[in-house]
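Risk mitigation, structural track. In case the binding assays with N-carbamoyl-L-aspartate fail to produce interpretable data, a predicted complex structure has been prepared as a fallback.
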Amino acid sequence: MKHLLSIDDLTGDQLHDVLDLASNFADVQAREVRKVPALRGKTIVLAFFEDSTRTRTSFDLAARRLSADVINFSAGSSSLKKGESLRDTIETITAMGVDAIVIRHASSGVPSTIRQWTDAAVVNAGDGWHQHPTQALLDSFTIREHFGSLAGKRIALCGDIVHSRVARSNVAAFSKLGAEVVLIAPRTLLPSNIDGWDATIETDLDAVLPDLDVAYFLRIQKERMAESLIPSEREYRARYGLTTERAAMLSPEALIMHPGPMNRGIEIDPEVADDKRAVVLNQVANGIPVRMAILFSVLGPGQFDEVDSPRASGGQP
Ligand code: NCD
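Fallback model:
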C-alpha cells in the first residue's frame, strides 16, 4: 500500500490486514514503553488545511510512537496566507525530503490530486464530503474489537449523511467487512442518489432501533450547510436524535458510536453520550493503533515481524 486515499481502493482482505496490524500495535500501546522504532528516520508531515482536534492529534501520536519525525503544517500560519498555491506548498514540503504527507482539506479530491506533485506517500485525513478512510478503519476496529467481527451485524448510520465523508467511508468499509448497513436521515440530508452505496434507506428510526447491533450517529454539519436543511434543531432532535427514550429502545448489547465532535443535545442527548454502551472514547483511543498501522503500511518494510522484534519491543535503537 503506497497511499491511503479511499476505502474504495481496498479489498475486504486488505481491510482485515490493516485491522490485524492495528491489533498488534494496540498490544504495543499496552506496554510500559509505547514506542517502537519501526519508522525511525522517516519524516511525516501533517498538512491540515481544515480544523481538527482528534484526527490530527491521533496521527501525531501515532507517528511519534513509531519513532518517525513529525512536522505539523498549519494552513492558517503558512505562506498559503500570502497567496502561495497548494501546488507550490506541496512541492516545497516535498523538497525538504518528507516520506509521507497526511492531508486534510475542505475540498474533495485534494489528496488524490497532490499525488502528482509529490513522491511522498499520501494519506487522506478527510477531504470535503468525500472520504475519511482512517475514521472508517478505526470505527471498524472498534466494532470488530467488541463483537469479534462485523459479519452479519446490522449497523445504522443516522444523521447528516449528505455532507458526511465519514458516512461515505464507513458504508464502504462496514459493508466490505460483511455488515448490513442502513441509512436514516431526513430527505434533505440524504444524497440524491445512493447508487453505488452498499446500504439501504430507512425512514423510521424508532422502528429500526431495536434490531441494531450498532447505532452510529453523525454530527449535523452546520458549516457545510448552504441553506437551512432542517426545520430547527429541536425538531431534528425530536425525530432523528438519539434521545434517552430512544436509547432505551436499543438492545443492551448494542454499541452507540459517534465520530466526534458531538453536538450534545442535537443528534445525541448528553446522558446518552455517556451511556455505558457508548464507545465514543474507545473510538478515539483506537485511532492511535489504527493510524500506526496505516503509517506503517505505507512507509514500513511491509512486515510486522520487524515491529515486534525484541529490538523493537525493548525500545532500544
Ligand atoms: C469527522 C470529520 O472531520 O470528518 N470528525 C472526525 O474526524 N472525527 C466528523 C465531523 O466533523 O463531524
